[in-house]
Amino acid sequence: MTHRPFEDAQWHRPAEPGAVDPAVLAALLHRHGWQRRGGAAGRYGRWTPPGPAGAGTSLLVPESRAFPDSDDLLGEALDALARSATPSAREVLLGLSVPSDEIRWWRDTPGGPASWAVEEQLRAAARQMLLAAALATRARAGYHGARHRRPAAALLDSVLVGAGGGDRLTAFVPVTGGRPLAVRLHQALYAAREAVDYQRATGGMDAFDGAIEAGVSRELTEALIALVRGSEGARIAVAWAPAAGVPDGCAGEGVEFSPGDLPALREAGARYLRAEPSVSVRITGAVVRMRRSQPRGEGSVRLRVLAGAEIPHVRVVLDEEDYRIAGHAHLVGLPVRLQGRLESRGGFRRLTGASGVVPVQVDEEERDRLLKSMQENLDFLEEACGGE
How much of the chain is helix, strand and coil, in % rounded to 5? Predict the structure, then answer.
């Protein structure tokens, strides 16, 4: 997930008046601080932007499409929002053009206005938190490490992070394709809050074990620590897209964490790291690096994982014969298949007890691509042949 400006074409498609639900527009205006100040009852409302009364352009928003001038009023309201200098006007337009759940973060930072460094800390913590939620949509684990990173990161490609300001930040998660992410984050945050409360009241960590099923992980506890550290407290809330409604079991006003919660979160993260077991796998991968200190004997191989594990790369130590097979397979543009245990230590990036290395046949297109990759990394040849 990267910060993209509001002018991004994917997100700044103008909403067509004929496609706008007046009730959704009114709900978004209310959410973003606009106030209804009269209007013809049962026909339209007059909405004014946040701030002192009379400041900024007011909008006339029909309450339904029951009257002939509804489309005209909606068109005028959309035009006024597009011209408005009020920051929330852009957020309302975003919610209309791409129905989205809004994830919001607030930090209570001592010492007056937030500095650039503090704003970056907030943005980095928010990114960590969204990635933790995306990982939890792929699998429930106390510690994900390198597993599932590619599909989780791909899920964040559709998320737009707003410009924010100071101690607040908003991410827009499209309902189409992104709602499972928002739901999982909401559930995980509440489970984390309950587990921290239980630990602080009883000293027991058992609640964190059950919280894994809700999406709590070491990655989430680290994100919460990064969010809270250096502040007087932080709050996270999800505002559900009015067009899609509130998912079952996801009502709530938001979750708060304080510096007093940090010891429990740190202990939970360490517990998750210790407890996550290694995993037996059978991996197919392309050899991208080989290294050994002597002309003969065992050597270290790095594989780009093609199948068998949700990780991008893995390192493995092979005996002399398996190392020779892996080298020959690479030289002719073939991946290899092997089995072993994916170790949690180091983030599931290392395979231990590897055995049964065999070349795997692939189609011509994939083989040509692997050969091209080898030619682009000629330093591999020296390493594969026995030394540096």
Answer: 45, 20, 35
